[in-house]
Amino acid sequence: MQNLLSNLKITINEKLYVKDPETSELGRNILKNSIILIDEIGFEAFTFKKLGEKIQSNESSIYRYFENKHKLLVYLTSWYWSWIEYRLAFATTNVSNPIEKLEKAIRLVTENVVDDNTTPHINEEILNRIIVGEFTKTLMTKEVDNENKEGFFLVYKRVINRLIDIIKEVNPDYPYAKSLASSIVEGALHQHFLKNHLKTITNLSEKECATEFYTDMTKKILA
């Protein structure tokens, strides 16, 4: 799968950036170090000034790529969900057994992420930590409806729609496939957050994975 992924170029909504950061060394450096810095200090404390200091570049140079830090965060989350979508497609396309396909899909959207080394400027393991802690901040804003119309969350919805289709393959009569699919994806992020920060209100740990929980729950619901 990694060999296939290494040959793919992830395409992001052009409205999220002023200049495509993938087209220059500085742009890729902005992506790489914004991931590291957001992970270190959190999105609230993150600023383009601090990023500029980290990459030893003028703050104004970052604005030539991104209008503001919100769009940068949406860009990073869109990149992440595109990466998940590619992996999901490759893992399930040639699987004919619906239950096996469901298990593979749930694993991919719930498991602990490890950097795949095919994108040297994007550390997926660190980016996953940002998704767990910060992704809701891209959605829960006053601008969400307008941004949704602009297609900012299209790839995220495509991931969920792939899971919806697989759920329907397992049980075409189940009436809540959309709610179940979105609950698996969102719920897994929340459970990872609880595991990392509020351990007393989740059964998950380093030994007990979100994948096992959501696979067990989903198969029982669809039985």
TrEMBL record:
Please verify whether the record's keywords include Lipid biosynthesis: no
Which residues belong to any copy of the HTH tetR-type domain?
24-84
Record SUPFAM superfamilies: Homeodomain-like
Give the protein's recorded name: TetR/AcrR family transcriptional regulator
What Gene3D superfamilies is this protein classified in? Tetracycline Repressor, domain 2 (1.10.357.10)
Could you tell me the superkingdom of the organism this chain comes from?
Bacteria
User: Which PROSITE patterns does the record match to this protein?
Assistant: HTH_TETR_2 (PS50977)
Which controlled-vocabulary keywords does the entry list?
Answer: DNA-binding
DNA-binding residues per UniProt? 47-66
Q: Which organism is it from?
A: Flavobacterium helocola
